[in-house]
Design goal:
Length: 597
């Protein structure tokens, strides 16, 4: 506390002593009254407003903007119902030119709220993506807002709002994205995050490529890194895409001059700003959410699926070392188009949520098969967070009508038969003979894809009334293959290799004893919410297979483990035994209502 006030005093004294030398100044007000202690920045320098709401800073005007960090208990004014006006473009590039920028806040009781975290909308005006976006994601947001009632609700998109490769050939860029959201009635505040596909591919490679290629974002959308507070939670939005766009001699799309490649790392200027921003966060025990596009951590491909650094130049460690003072840190990312949670060794205060895509597989599965499926078999969707003070709860939700579905169950007998006999699959295998065809699965195996699995979830599987052993595996989901890979080859003769089914770590294998007894799966998530799904066997493998799962419990029993909620934040292994390694800062409420799909 003393450290914060000393730092604020130094900043305010410095501001008062050199106000004549400052080239950017203004007021932050609410209903005409100045708001004290609001952090204001140009992306390099950081200052705070005085008791009159006045700020002033000397800027090199490098980024071309000034912004404030939304303080607790307020909301920004909105343009078009969704764009927060927390920033303004500078009027002059000349550092000798003084300019004034005033901001208006609105009082809000928002310690408790709902947060929608989506990623990778990839709008490009192709594959019926605008129609899918409107009828899928936008309608989900409107439903969530209606569900929230009078409660506060906000949203973020974690990068790749657009698709740089089609800015010129399809005439759809960041301006068009913002206009689309306006036209479709985006129903809540949107805090955007820049992704690699939100850079301008017409920018030639060079030392200034990253800065120049992100200029459209800074001019149209918002700063590429900034911070804000909602209730007790401090949010930091970062740009971990260093755009290179090197010319490798390829056949580029119209207007594109390079390969659109990038390095996943932060600029030194951004890290310097981050240190200044975090130094002004008083409550280090309250949650801190760091939002960016490319994941900071990835999972190894074998048990125990340890988290390993994903950013270049040791930036994963650099970032997390900067966050050590904070006891409850959540990194939220996108980019991969699949789901996972990472708990990096050495950083017990940090967990990362990598969230699958709004667009699923770049809108292709909806275009080909009217299904909305990501590369890992997860339905295209978003993460729904409930924030109550410093308590956070989250769950993954599908954009499709089965929004609360948390798993898909496969009878591998019928899956293997499908891959051996289906003519469309045979055609795909003629073109791609090395593709997975699931022959290695033993007879009567059952495979379960738990979309948003985390290590403290409990999974119980029953064949009839007999409980079976569950094994977590690294494998490929067969459903995405028939939703994207197979129809693309059938229709087009080939597929885009980066869009195909990928191996993931949230698949679970069970060896059943029979081919016809029903299978029941019971999940308990991190917060005691329970989900039950069953299949009758043989269970069909088809595009509509989810509709033939049932939320009925076909095991014929109700175990104590299924009836009772966890009494504390305790982790369990896959056999339901306490694992004794839970350290997450999560609160699990006793007596919470059981939720079943």
């Amino acid at each position: 506390m003393k450290h914060r006030y000393l730092l604020l005093s130094i900043i305010l004294l410095s501001t008062a002593a050199s106000v004549l030398a400052q080239n950017i100044s203004g007021y932050v007000r609410c209903k005409g009254i100045g708001v004290e202690g609001v952090v204001v920045s140009d992306g390099d320098s950081v200052t705070v407003t005085n008791e009159s709401g006045y700020y002033a800073l000397q800027s090199q005007k490098r980024n071309g903007y000034v912004f404030y960090s939304l303080p607790r208990g307020y909301e920004p004014t909105l343009t078009d119902g969704f764009q927060p006006q927390f920033w303004q473009k500078l009027l002059y590039a000349n550092v000798k030119s003084n300019e004034t920028h005033n901001f208006t806040l609105n009082k809000a009781d928002n310690d408790n709220y709902t947060l929608i975290l989506g990623a990778d909308s990839h709008l490009a005006n192709r594959t019926r993506d605008l129609k899918q976006f409107k009828e899928g994601y936008i309608e989900c947001l409107k439903a969530e807002k209606q569900q929230a009632g009078k409660g506060k609700i906000y949203s973020m998109i974690l990068g790749d709002l657009t698709w740089d490769n089609y800015w010129y050939s399809r005439n759809y860029n960041l301006n068009d994205f913002m206009n689309t959201c306006k036209e479709y009635g985006y129903p809540m505040t949107l805090w955007p995050v820049i992704g690699n596909h939100d850079n301008d591919g017409a920018t030639p490679a060079g030392d200034d490529c990253d800065f120049l290629s992100s200029a459209p974002w800074r001019n149209i959308v918002c700063p590429n890194y900034y911070s804000f507070n909602l209730g007790r939670v401090h949010y930091v939005v970062l740009d971990d895409v260093y755009y290179l766009n090197e010319d490798t001699g390829g056949n580029y799309a119209k207007g594109i001059v390079g390969s659109r490649n990038y390095s996943a790392r932060f600029t030194p200027e951004q890290l310097d700003w981050l240190r200044r921003d975090l130094a002004l966060v008083e409550d280090k025990e309250a949650p801190l959410i760091v939002a960016l596009h490319v994941p900071v951590w990835k999972l190894e491909t074998a048990s125990p699926f340890t988290a390993t650094a994903n950013l270049a130049d040791d930036n994963s460690k650099t970032l997390c070392d900067m966050l050590k003072e904070f006891s409850n840190v959540h990194i939220v990312s996108g980019h991969t188009h699949y789901n996972y949670h990472a708990h990096p060794t050495g950083y017990k205060n940090i967990m990362e949520h990598n969230i699958a895509a709004i667009c699923a597989s770049w809108w292709w599965t909806g275009y080909c098969t009217n299904r909305h499926v990501c590369r890992d078999g997860s339905p295209g969707g978003y993460s729904l967070w409930n924030v109550e003070g410093d308590r956070l709860q989250w769950k993954y939700k599908s954009i499709e009508q089965n929004g609360d579905l948390q798993m898909r169950i496969y009878d591998m007998n019928t899956v293997k038969d499908y891959f051996e006999t289906n003519d469309s699959v045979k055609k795909m295998l003629e073109v791609y003979p090395s593709r997975t065809v699931y022959r290695d699965f033993a007879k009567n195996t059952v495979l379960i894809n738990v979309f948003a699995y985390d290590t403290d979830w409990r999974i119980f599987v029953y064949e009839g009334s007999k409980r079976r052993t569950v094994t977590r595996i690294y494998g490929e989901d067969p459903y995405h293959t028939i939703c994207y890979d197979v129809p693309r080859v059938f229709q087009n003769g080939s597929y885009t290799s980066t869009f195909t089914s990928c191996k993931v770590s949230h698949l679970f294998k069970v060896q059943a004893n029979t081919a016809d007894n029903p299978i029941t799966v019971r999940l308990t998530d991190s917060f005691g919410n329970q989900y039950v799904q069953s299949i009758r066997r043989p269970h069909p493998f088809s595009l509509d297979m989810e509709q033939q799962q049932t939320s009925d419990d076909l095991s014929g029993i109700r175990s104590v483990a299924n009836r009772q909620q966890p009494q504390a934040a305790v982790a369990y292994d896959l056999q339901g035994r306490p694992a004794g390694h839970h350290s997450r800062g999560i609160v699990i409420q006793k007596g919470k209502k059981i939720h079943q799909h």
